[in-house]
Write a structure and sequence with these properties.
By secondary structure, the chain is mostly beta strands. Helix content is about 5%, strand content about 50%. The protein starts with 8 loop residues before the first strand and ends in a 5-residue tail after the last strand.
């Protein structure tokens, strides 16, 4: 005998619960299994999952993916729909396409509790592309990705994308590959994420997190290692990046990428503009062939306004931190230290002016060893800077060199 769910009454076992039909209870959310998804072999579940998503397109809703392994080619998450798995250990989505956007997300939508990977080796592919505004990606694990997440497109901006409590591991090591690409955005939030490559590979992907055109990004408590430039801000000409805020982040263990071995753990080198940036309590370390932090400008690019407080620059092949182009202005370093760097603790290139360094240490810290050169301001026309209350001691070649000219204040530093 068949009984219609609308004719059966259901009451939750909680105080003050009210009775309603089983049909109404089941309508709280839908399962991809209701639409024929298999989830236990290699059959293609694309149509079933997409039909489940489309069933919630009017008015929004939640689509659940029970534990299992689901193969698909491409998926589109409509506005206001949440795609929810049972956790990254239990629910695995395997994309069979190796190019293009695997999952595209529209506005006010969420994906969570999933492990996302590919059946083959992706090339020029993106696991999740954020097309809309107020999109959240949380509690997901990304593996075997070319690019894990892209926010926005070249021609459209994603407003308030949130990527939180996610892990990224085992990336593809190829030109243009990386973890998170904030391509065109406003008010982005990336927090509590961990990103790791394979253990000491000969070649790493190009980046961990990459930022292009945008206004206001909060990067908080992120650990990125073995991803080439763990932080990459190579803003194209004609575009600008404003108000990036980094706190408690570790940019670590840069190695060779496909085009060069001189890779810094963080590289800010725009052909456009980077303005009003802040980094606090961040680590820039263990670059095998480059520096912990490189700040430069390409062509007519500019970096104006960059404040670093209580940051650590440790055990890099070249410099702990280096500011190279005269197109850099108004950077400020307060506190923090550089140790065990192969060439410089802190280097300021010729012609870089209008900066201040206060209370910075270039020495042997935590037993890691001294720098070759402590604090170095290259010879040249560098004007309007202050270097005060710093300690540069015990470095192997020299502790402090000030080659700048102009109206500068260098005082109260310990250099012997």
């Amino acid at each position: 005998m068949t009984t219609n769910a609308s004719d059966v009454t259901y009451t939750a076992s909680f105080p003050d619960s009210v009775a309603r039909s089983v049909q109404e209870r089941l309508s709280d959310w839908v399962s991809v299994r209701d639409f024929g998804a298999n989830g236990n072999d290699s059959s293609d579940d694309t149509e079933a999952i997409q039909n489940a998503l489309d069933s919630q397109a009017v008015g929004g809703g939640t689509v659940r993916i029970p534990r299992g392994t689901y193969f698909y080619s491409t998926l589109n998450v409509p506005s206001g729909v949440s795609l929810v798995g049972e956790g990254s250990f239990s629910t695995l989505l395997v994309c069979t396409a190796t190019t293009g956007d695997a999952i595209s997300i529209a506005s006010a939508s969420t994906i969570s509790g999933l492990r996302l990977t590919y059946s083959g080796v992706p090339s020029g592919a993106c696991n999740v592309r954020i097309h809309g505004n107020r999109v959240t990606i949380t509690e997901c694990e990304f593996t075997n990705y070319y690019i894990g997440v892209i926010a926005g497109t070249q021609n459209s901006q994603a407003i308030f994308p949130v990527i939180a409590n996610c892990s990224f591991r085992s990336p593809v090591a190829a030109t243009g590959a990386g973890g998170i690409f904030l391509q065109n955005y406003g008010n982005a939030l990336v927090r509590d994420c961990v990103m790791s490559g394979d253990s000491h590979p000969s070649v790493q992907p190009d980046f961990g997190i990459r930022l292009h055109n945008g206004d206001t990004a909060f990067l908080t408590d992120i650990n990125i290692t073995l991803h080439g430039h763990a932080l990459l801000m190579d803003v194209p000409a004609g575009l600008n990046n404003y108000a990036t805020r980094m706190s408690g982040c570790l940019f670590d263990s840069a190695g060779s990428i496909t085009t060069t071995s001189a890779v810094s753990s963080a590289r800010i080198a725009p052909a456009g503009g980077v303005y009003d940036m802040l980094a606090s309590n961040c680590w820039f370390g263990l670059s095998r062939g480059g520096s912990g932090l490189t700040v430069d400008a390409i062509g007519t690019g500019a970096v104006d306004g960059f404040e670093l407080s209580n940051c650590q620059f440790v055990n890099n092949a070249n410099a702990g931190a280096e500011f190279l182009s005269p197109a850099i202005a108004n950077f400020k370093i307060t506190g923090g230290y550089a140790s065990a760097n192969g060439v410089y603790g802190l280097r300021v290139g010729p012609g870089v002016g209008r900066f201040s360094v206060n209370g910075f240490t270039a020495a042997n810290v935590a037993g890691r060893g001294a720098n070759a050169r402590g604090i170095n301001i290259d010879s040249g026309q560098s004007d309007g800077y202050l270097v005060t209350n710093c300690r540069a001691q015990g470095n192997t070649v020299f502790n402090f060199y000030d080659g700048g000219t102009g109206s500068n204040i260098v005082s109260n530093n310990l250099t012997t």
